[in-house]
Design goal:
Layout: E1 5-10, H1 24-29, H2 33-38, E2 44-49, H3 71-90, E3 94-99, H4 104-113, E4 119-124, H5 145-149, H6 155-158, E5 172-177, H7 182-190, E6 194-197, H8 198-204, H9 206-218, E7 223-229, H10 251-264, E8 269-273, H11 284-296
Parallel strand pairs: 1-2, 1-3, 3-8, 4-5, 4-7, 5-6, 7-8
EC number: 3.5.3.1
Cofactor: Mn(2+)
Keywords: Arginine metabolism, Hydrolase, Manganese, Metal-binding
Length: 302
C-alpha cells in the first residue's frame, strides 16, 4: 500500500443494547495492532478514539425516537466520525476504522461519500443491516446503517453529515449473510443487490465469491469500502460479539478473502466492527480482528 494509513477508533455502543462493544477499539489495540501492521512496512498512525458520550445503553429509551434506540447519540457520534474520515481522505490517506458497533458504518460511509461518485461497498457480515425503524424488530440502529446509507430510514440518519444518499444498491455486495429479516430479503430482491449467502459461499467457495465480487465492482466504482463485522465469521473464531450466528465463514476462508483483496489492491477504506471484549474469551476475538487486519495489509505465510 502506497498510502499512509490512519487508524481511527470508533467506540460506539449506541447502536445496540449490549455493554462492552465500546471497549472494542482498545481491546484490538491491546493485541499490538499498530506494531504488527508496522512490521509489514505499512506507514500507520493511530489517531486515537472518537469521543463518545457515556449513557446506559441497556435502559436508554427508544420509544421517543420512532423505535430507534439512542437516535441522538448515534447521530452525534457518527457526525464526528464522518468528519474525521472525511479529513483523512482529503489528506490523501487511507482510513482504517475499528469499532464499536456497526452503526459506525453510517459515519464512515458519510465521510467517504464526499470523495466518490460511485462508492462501492463490500459488506462482510452475517446480517444485511438493511432494516429501518418499521422493519426492525429491535430498534437497534446497528442493524440499519447500510439501509440508511442507501437512503432508507429516518431523515436525520439518511442526511447525516451531508444531505442525500451515500451509496447505490448496484454498488453493494453482501458476503456471508445468514440472518436476514423479511424486510431485508424483500429489499435485496427488489433492488437486485448482489448477495452471497453462506449457501453461496459453501457452493462456490470463497475464492470464486471474492473474484466475482471484485469483478462486479471494480470497473463501475471509483473506490471500494470494506466493512467487516466479526460476526461474519463463525462464532467459534469470534465469540466476543453481540449477535453471533452459527454456520459462518471460517478464519481460513477469511484469510483467503482478505489476501485476495490485498493482492487486487482495490480497497480504498476498511473498517472492522462489533468486537465486544466483555463477551470474549481471553481477548480471542480482538486477536482475530488484528490478524484479519494483518492479512489485509499484506501478511502472508511465505
Amino acid at each position: 500500500m502506497d498510502k499512509k494509513v490512519k487508524l481511527i477508533g470508533a467506540p460506539s455502543c449506541f447502536g445496540q443494547p449490549r455493554l462492552g462493544v465500546d471497549l472494542g477499539p482498545d481491546a484490538i489495540r491491546y493485541t499490538n495492532l499498530v506494531g504488527r501492521i508496522k512490521s509489514l512496512n505499512v506507514d500507520i498512525k493511530d489517531l486515537g478514539n472518537i469521543e463518545a458520550e457515556k449513557i446506559n445503553v441497556e435502559i436508554h429509551s427508544k420509544e421517543k425516537n420512532d423505535n430507534l434506540r439512542n437516535l441522538e447519540e448515534v447521530i452525534k457520534f457518527n457526525e464526528k466520525l464522518a468528519k474525521q474520515v472525511d479529513e483523512v481522505v482529503e489528506n490523501g490517506d487511507f482510513p482504517f476504522i475499528i469499532g464499536g458497533d456497526h452503526s459506525i458504518a453510517l459515519g464512515t460511509l458519510s465521510g467517504l461519500s464526499k470523495h466518490y461518485e460511485n462508492l462501492g461497498v463490500i459488506w462482510y457480515d452475517a446480517h444485511g443491516d438493511l432494516n429501518d425503524s418499521k422493519t426492525s424488530p429491535s430498534g437497534n440502529i446497528h442493524g440499519m446503517p447500510l439501509a440508511q446509507a442507501l437512503g432508507i430510514g429516518h431523515e436525520k440518519l439518511v442526511n447525516l453529515y451531508e444531505d442525500g444518499v451515500k451509496i447505490k444498491p448496484e454498488n453493494v455486495v453482501l458476503i456471508g449473510v445468514r440472518d436476514l429479516d423479511e424486510g431485508e430479503i424483500e429489499y435485496i430482491k427488489e433492488n437486485n443487490i448482489l448477495c452471497f449467502t453462506m449457501d453461496d459461499v459453501a457452493r462456490l467457495g470463497i475464492g470464486r465469491v471474492m473474484e466475482e465480487t471484485v469483478s462486479y465492482l471494480k470497473d463501475k466504482t471509483d473506490g471500494i469500502h470494506l466493512s467487516l463485522d466479526v460476526d461474519g465469521l463463525d462464532p467459534q473464531f469470534t465469540p466476543g460479539t453481540g449477535t453471533p450466528v452459527v454456520n459462518g465463514i471460517t478464519l481460513r476462508e477469511t484469510n483467503q478473502a482478505l489476501t485476495y483483496l490485498h493482492d487486487q489492491d482495490v480497497i480504498s477504506s476498511f473498517e472492522i466492527v462489533e468486537v465486544n471484549p466483555l463477551l470474549d474469551e481471553k481477548n480471542k476475538t480482538a486477536e482475530v480482528a488484528t490478524y484479519i487486519a494483518e492479512v489485509f495489509f499484506g501478511k502472508k505465510y511465505l
